[in-house]
Amino acid sequence: MTISMYEASVPVFSTRLKALSKVLAIAEKNAADRKIDPQVFIGARLAPDMFALARQVQIATDHAKGAPSRLAGRDVPKYEDSETTFADLQARIEKTLAHLATFSAKDIDGSDGKSVSLKLGGQKMTLTGLRYLLDVAMPNFYFHVTTAYDILRHNGVPLGKADYLGTR
Question: Where are the chain's structural domains?
Fold first, then answer.
């Protein structure tokens, strides 16, 4: 059985980003309910040497827009990385979801053997499409989505697994 590169990417990114959007909405409401400046959450991090919440969302959306673009042979859209509010982060997620909606299976399926070159962490790498998707794009995407969730949970936002999965 062969893997559908489309099914393993675009719907997964879309579903997780929609769940992340709901998590951010819960956090924004929680900040208001607890009378906490939303910037406390936006700038929060798990450790001093880790990125803050806003950057976690930015990087997650970068992987979500980058993977299907590279696999389809399209230019990766560039975002400014200037989000400083929950509204800004929600707009970035919506923009990414709109970009993902421009892909179909015919754009991405069959890209498993395609050569994908990129720079990650200052290091140039070339991988097959399958290895890029499964070993680089998806793990990095999940890492940053999970870290965003963890930052909010660590700061007392009442979140659970159903929120992370998008089933609540």
Answer: 10-163
Six-digit token string for 111? 């890209």
Alpha-helical (H) ranges within 34-160 are 38-42, 53-72, 86-100, 105-108, 129-132, 138-154
Total Cβ atoms within 10 A of residue 77: 14
How far is 87 from 85, CA to CA, in rounded Å?
5
Three-class SS state of 39: helix
pTM above 0.85, yes or no: yes
Closest CA to 83 of 46, 119, 58: 58
- Provide the 3-class DSSP secondary structure of residue 81: coil
Give the residues of the chain that fall short of pLDDT 70.
Answer: 1
Q: Residue 117: name the closest of 138, 132, 135 by CA.
A: 132
Domain 10-163 class?
Answer: mainly alpha
Collapsed DSSP state (helix, strand, coil) of residue 107 = helix
